[in-house]
Amino acid sequence: LKQVALKKKVIGIDLMGSDAAPNVLLDALKAQISSLSPNVELVAIGTSEYKEKASFLRFYSADEAIQMDEHPLQALRHKKNSSLVVGLRLLKQGTIDAFVSAGNTGALVSAAKMILGLFPSLLRPALLALMPTKGQAVAVLDVGANLKEKASHLVQFAQLGSAYQKVRGIKNPKVGLLNIGSEPLKGTSELRLAYQKLKNSSLHFVGNVEGKSVFDGEIDVLVTDGFTGNVFLKTSEGITSFILDQLNTHFSEKSLTELRHRLYYTEYPGALLVGVKGVVVKCHGHAKPESIFQAIKGAIEFVSHDFVKNLHHEFIYNRL
Amino acid sequence: LKQVALKKKVIGIDLMGSDAAPNVLLDALKAQISSLSPNVELVAIGTSEYKEKASFLRFYSADEAIQMDEHPLQALRHKKNSSLVVGLRLLKQGTIDAFVSAGNTGALVSAAKMILGLFPSLLRPALLALMPTKGQAVAVLDVGANLKEKASHLVQFAQLGSAYQKVRGIKNPKVGLLNIGSEPLKGTSELRLAYQKLKNSSLHFVGNVEGKSVFDGEIDVLVTDGFTGNVFLKTSEGITSFILDQLNTHFSEKSLTELRHRLYYTEYPGALLVGVKGVVVKCHGHAKPESIFQAIKGAIEFVSHDFVKNLHHEFIYNRL
Fold this sequence. Notes:
Two copies of one chain form a homodimer. Chain A is α/β, with parallel strands linked by helices. Chain A is 43% helix and 17% strand. The first copy, chain A, contains twelve helices and eleven strands. Chain A has an eleven-stranded mixed sheet with strand order 3-2-1-4-11-10-5-6-9-7-8, with helices on both faces. Chain A starts with a helix and ends with a helix. At the A-B interface, helix 8, helix 9 and helix 10 of A face helix 8, helix 9 and helix 10 of B.
């Protein structure tokens, strides 16, 4: 039993495909690795030219990198051993316990579906981000795994988000649908249909929610399509950075540190790809090395608490 | 000439159809009306039961009100003399110079198209909101006049937004397309098509822009569909209110007043319905009386500067 508890947590890091150059990322990892528990091992996945620079880490070689501007499916077809595919294979075979990547989202999501597989009866995975509010953090999904969503996908995201919050200890998570008004007739036809389906489901659905009220902290799960959710997340980041910038001109740096810590989204541990059988954490493409390091810490938390396994069970147990 | 300059500016206010009860709105107007220039007259439009309470204002009676949860076109068909239709007719015939409403958006937009007419060759109007950034304010459109937009609509919104900023004195406004990444291939097929059309247009198109970078102040016009734009606007409002709330627990009220003034979206004068021949200012349905009063001030500004007439000329002159 003791041996199991002390089993090393191995986190794989994709060095490739983000805006941060692999060398810059490696420098950041080297500088911060000592702050991690000795029970954690970081593993780098990249093309062989970075092997020497990464000599302080176990290293797995990939043949190539998928770039941000490549078409996801074409790239996966032509680059059979890209860093993200190598990483996901290592995750599938248990060599690593979690995979963190800031690479091409579409390619990562498609490859994760193929290599890791989806939860039973799930149509699509979603990227889930936990965001701060006046109350408890809200789980927002999808923040970009897909572009458009049908009502049936949105309903499954509500189930996934609800399962996620149950695993975090919230008994009966309140689910809202991101819309442009609270009335049932608001929004696109898919949103109106999703509203009806959610209303008739066993989930604790509280109705349509506007971007304005999300931060009041009265819901635990916010369901949206991947395009809108991505805009929602990035707008929140943008306006937070804008306001903190304004504050800097008014208040001392010292007095702002706590607030910054509470609000700043680089502190938040990336988005979890929910619905695939494995811990895959996605950072955005222009993530700075420090936020990739935060995502690594987030991945360690997920692994430590067997989070995705519990999520999987919760999802099956509460299937609609 | 002097007479023209001193011509009274008459602003019509829709008392009906928002979350704020007409009586509450009238109390707020009564309390604040003395702060307006004597050169401005406010006119109330509502059902006759509010006539007495509104005795301090010129009053126009409507037969009924269109509610927020009504289907816009059905409501317009069945309620021929609703307050918003009466108001738009008064605007069309020149009895009022601007119309401010916090009522049903879909009904207001459809009625404005029919009663006021569109700029030549324009397919649809858009709601435009001016939002604060680290630099100059950015004109965001559409923030909710329509739900979905085709590439051709988005291109026209870019023209409208560009014309709007030219009238505000910006020589060569920079136009960005709200998207989930900066690469040309990002987003839906309509966004990809709009990207190509804008790239090949005479507008100063700077490419796709993420919600994160909008607030850096490097663009003057942000083009998006009405659903996403509405989420964008309301998310910005929500997170601003959230952060100011957090700040209240850290800093004194006094030190925050200036910042609040700079950021708080209730200070911003509602959204202008651009593309119709008349000054129509839309406040959101849950606007508080004080933000409706801000919208009235915004409408006075638009009227004082012949803004919509200039916008119309600018739009025609720079048609693609």
